[in-house]
């Protein structure tokens, strides 16, 4: 009897055709976790967390050294403000600014890990292997995006929670901390929206590029140019709403509102800054519309390029 | 019926590759034979729902293509013609991943990945990265991913491409074993006659997007080599009747004075002379043919005026 006769058995176990995106997501995530660059970036993303933590600790110690400020501190806590490095700052605004800074980490993480997400499968003719199974293009796309998104969402979510807990422990009573919880929920939604849009943009670039490097260049170009163009138009026309052309600016508006940051303070800060304005509040509806349109555009581009068979016209 | 195809037109964009194809497969091993560009791969891709039919109807497992393509695909294994794999994965992880995408739970997919890799002869190399495999090993890995979920129907597109002679024989043995002993129906596309001959119980010859020839072959026929090509002068019809009366079977593909006849092992070629004497004909040529399929294939394409061969 040939050896192969002893090894093959017919399969009579369970089969499921739901949640087929999960294996794709897992398979996308694993190489990201194995990459050294990912861990270097993660270490870089931790630096702001450490800086903020040290700031909280030092500020809290300064308060205990000057007990006469205890009353003022309690008043600040009621306004959910904390005396970071002697400055009064709203915790919501602080969390938003922290996440705005961490956006660079998210953006870089997707740049180094997302470029090959689809083009690698295309270059190795793997799409027929995927789509000769019950997997749909939507499952495939969801799996790829989820795989790229999972790590930044987990890391940024955890970092936000850590900062919140420290601020609560040092400056707020339990009741005040509980009252602040929706801010954490808003931060989590903001992180997810950012990660989804950035990942989806890279997946779209990867679906039509010739290789991972080209996908990275197009991705860079897209985020850089939309930002520059929107700023230029806004500067020339003095119409705030034109800022929505840049997805990065729309994300900022959404984040500020979701987290409950002090939008007026941020806007004033932006106006006083040199050069183009850093923050313009053109309103949530416009920001959401802009993000939804960009997401739809990226999904459509990817969909168009997920063809198993090239059509000859 | 496993597959029913009725007046199917299929192609890419406006370009028709298959025209008015009508076929029925009830199961077993089917060989799709034809030169490059005949439409074999297009037929498989249409079955999988990759290409929507331009006209006609196609049903697989009594399900409509392309409306129920997803349900069909959950019961089909596909081995594409081109080199296809996911870089950076070893064979076990690759095959297990493909099993999961076919709906198997993760532990079952991993278990079956080991089994099928052993089955296709990659047991020792299963932890090696697929990129390091030779062309023949990649073909085996492709077969493994196609059978990991134990499909009811296996679609193989040129499975012996790039394999050395020994590897080719082993691959065909595996395909035969799957069709005969593992309850899988197989559709094997190839432009190599020997491959199809050694595996298929039903043969379909495609050329220029049309079915040129189709027939069932039984086991005896596959082992049978006593097929004769005859040319007679005189009343060929009377000769043919006499041959059949004496126990030989006439095969498709003959025309006019040319005949193809298959002899059971109990008879020898002397019966042709008896038949000639009985019908008053003269035998001008009597040639034993071990390559009758090749003759038929070549003739079918010749009739089409195809210049591919």
Query: What strand order characterises the main sheet of chain A?
Result: 1-2
Overall strand count of chain B: 14
In which range does the helix fraction of chain B lie? 25-40%
Integer average pLDDT of chain B: 86
Give the helix tally of chain B. Answer: 11
Uncertain spans of chain B: none
Query: Biggest interface between protein chains, with counts per chain?
Result: A-B, 39 and 52 residues
Secondary-structure element pattern of chain A, one letter each: HHHEEHHHHHHHHHH
Helix and strand content put the structural class of chain A at mainly alpha
Rounded to the nearest angstrom, the radius of gyration of chain B is: 22 Å
Features:
heterodimer; A: 313 residues; mainly alpha; two-stranded antiparallel sheet; 13 helices; globular; B: 309 residues; alpha/beta; 4-stranded antiparallel sheet; 11 helices; 27% strand
Mind explaining what this structure looks like?
The complex is a heterodimer of chains A (313) and B (309). Helices cover 73% and strands 3% of the residues of chain A. Chain A has 313 residues and is mainly α. Chain A has a two-stranded antiparallel sheet with strand order 1-2. The termini of chain A are far apart. Chain B is an alpha/beta fold. Helix content of chain B is 37%, strand content 27%. In chain B, the strands form 3 sheets. In chain B, strands 6-7-8-3-9-10 form a 6-stranded mixed β-sheet, with helices on both faces. In chain B, a hairpin with a 7-residue loop joins strand 12 and strand 13 (258-262). The radius of gyration of chain B is 22 Å and the shape is elongated. Chain B starts with a strand and ends in a 5-residue tail after the last helix. The relative contact order of chain B is 0.13. Chains A and B meet through helix 1 and helix 6 of A and helix 2, strand 6, helix 3, helix 4 and helix 6 of B.
Give a quick summary of the entry:
The complex is a heterodimer of chains A (313) and B (309). Chain A is 73% helix and 3% strand. Chain A has 13 helices and 2 strands, in the order αααββαααααααααα.
